[in-house]
Structures are given as C-alpha cells and as structure tokens.
Design goal:
34% of the residues lie in helices and 27% in strands. It has 318 residues and is α/β, with parallel strands linked by helices. It has one domain: Dihydrofolate Reductase, subunit A (3-Layer(aba) Sandwich). The strands form two sheets. Strands 1, 2, 3, 4, 7, 8, 9, 10, 11, 12 and 13 form an eleven-stranded mixed beta sheet that branches. Strands 5-6 form a two-stranded antiparallel ribbon.
C-alpha cells in the first residue's frame, strides 16, 4: 500500500498514529503536544554564497499557492496534522484576503480521522483558535473564516433537558495595533456581535508575529501552528533563540519548469536560463531558509520520501 492509499484509508486516531510511526519511524506526535510548530512547503534552489570562501548552499523557496503549483496528498495531510494538534493557528490578513476558502479546519478527506486523533490522543476537545495578524481595518467579515466563528443555534434538548450545539465554532482573534483596533472593534460589534460570534480584537503596541506567539503562549503547554507566509514567519527565525520549536518541511524536488532537451547553442542556453528563472519566480512565494541555517539551528529528527516529495521533521537545538 502506498502512502497516499494509506492516508486515504484512515478512519480514526489510532490509524493516524500508525501512519506517522510507519512513515517517519519517529514519535512525531511528541513534537506536536506543545510549542511553536511551523509547517510549510518549499522547493530548493541552488545558490553560491559569497563569503570568505565561496560555497554552494540550498535556499528553500516557499511554494506559492496557485492552480499550477505542485500538489501532494501527503503534504496536505501534514498541514492538516498541525491544525489538528494546535490550540492556536497564526496566519496573516494577507492570507485571508488572498484565499477566500481559508479556514483552520482539517482538509478533506483526513478530517474525521484527525479530529478523532485530536480528541483521543491529544485530549483536546475545543477547536483551534485562529489568530490573524492584520494592520488593516478592511476585514471581510463574510469570509468563511469568520462565518465558522459564529455560534451555532441550539438544537433540540437532549434526554437530560439541556441544549446541545449542532457544531462548535472556530474562534478568531484579530491581532492588530492600537491605531487599527478601534476600527476593527466597531466593525466586529456591528457585523459579528459577541452574543452570536466568537470573534474578538486584540491590540498590541508592537504587533508582530513574535508578539502574537507571546499572546498564545499565555496558555500553558499550548501548541501554536504557524501558517504565515515567508516574510512574516522569518521573523521567528531571526530571534535568538529562535521561536520555532518544530519545523515540518515539505520539500518538492521535482522540476519547476517544463522538461526540455538541453539546448546546444549559447543563445538558447541563455533563453533556457531566463525561462527557468521565470518559472522559479512564478512558483515562489518568497525565499525561506537555507540548508546551512537549518543545519546550524535544527536537528533533523525524521524524514520520509514520497515520489518527488520529501517530508522532514526538524527539532530546534536548545
């Protein structure tokens, strides 16, 4: 049975545990019980580093979410796995604006198995809370992320006479600065009042992904999943010590442009080089980290290969 077939056949939390142990030969779950977890998909680009002694290195570029970007069932599972483990999921307003279907729910078809894993293995009953970093007041409250934060209407009474809820809301915190906070509060109070929605505003004088992590860490032993883009998430790696405890890196090793025969003349070679560079830019959401940096600050705890994709679990060196 291939990894994809195994993933598509999972039914419960123990199936998730069996898959993780078989694929990685490592207790991945232990890395997800607490701390800051960053999950991202990248592709490698070879670069020459101009230093005292020039040396080759790999720069990993974050894969842009687009129709022609490479896709992987395993990669989708890794994203859903971190959501299933998280108490908080930190994203940016840009992601919410650019992805009309963005939520922090587990992707289909892994949802039922991962939800069971969350409750039966991690013993977390409440859904994860979204923390959206934004410095802009133009929030689209009709976005599905905010609609899923609405409190469901009570259903019929159960045998004990108490009301049951049809579905649990996914709370959202808009994390912003003091200047924008009043505008967001007015918007939320008028469009998503607290008696029917779990959306709130949190102001911080130094609004950043690092201060958002501090906000989430007020809950003891919390697991915080980072789903921000490369520009925002890199701030967590510039801190000393770095703020990321576990990095789940999905690496696509396949071609980033159409395969063509090697050109014979120099002019064609130059054109191919430009075409290749354009393909890289089109597929990249931005440079992420280098292999040299990963070797310096992380330990490779486990890895799994599936076709053109490689999945690595990195543990920060403390």
């Amino acid at each position: 049975m291939s990894w994809d077939e195994w993933l598509l056949s999972m039914h419960g939390g123990q199936d998730v545990e069996s898959f993780l142990l078989s694929a990685f030969q490592y207790d991945v779950t232990s890395r997800l019980r607490s701390g800051v977890v960053h999950v991202t998909s990248v592709f490698p680009v070879s670069v020459t580093v101009a230093h005292a002694d020039c040396f080759s290195d790999l720069t990993y570029h974050t894969i842009r979410i687009a129709p022609r970007s490479p896709k992987s069932i395993f990669d989708a599972f890794m994203l859903s796995l971190t959501r299933a483990s998280a108490d908080f999921v930190i994203a940016t307003g840009k992601i919410v604006r650019c992805e009309p279907d963005y939520t922090v729910e587990c992707l289909s078809p892994f949802g039922p198995a991962l939800e069971d894993w969350r409750t039966s293995v991690l013993h977390r009953a409440a859904p994860p809370q979204s923390v959206v970093l934004t410095a802009q007041p133009d929030v689209d409250v009709s976005h599905v992320l905010f609609q899923r934060a609405k409190k469901p209407l009570p259903s019929t009474q159960n045998a004990c006479g108490s009301e049951e809820l049809r579905d649990k809301p996914y709370p959202v915190v808009l994390f912003t600065n003091a200047q924008v906070a009043p505008q967001l509060e007015r918007l939320i109070s008028s469009s998503l009042p607290s008696d029917c929605s779990c959306v709130s505003v949190q102001a911080h004088p130094q609004c950043s992904i690092s201060t958002a992590v501090d906000y989430c860490l007020k809950r003891p032993d919390a697991t915080i999943s980072i789903e921000a883009g490369p520009r925002s998430s890199l701030d967590l790696y510039r801190c000393r010590p770095i703020r990321v405890d576990t990095l789940l890196l999905s690496i696509y090793h396949g071609a980033v442009s159409d395969t063509q025969p090697a050109p014979a003349d120099e002019e064609s070679k130059c054109a191919m080089h430009v075409q290749s560079a354009s393909a890289v830019l089109a597929m990249s959401a931005g440079p992420f980290l280098t292999q040299h940096f990963l070797d310096q600050y992380f330990q490779l705890a486990a890895r799994c290969v599936d076709g053109d994709w490689e999945f690595r679990v990195y543990a920060a060196l403390r």
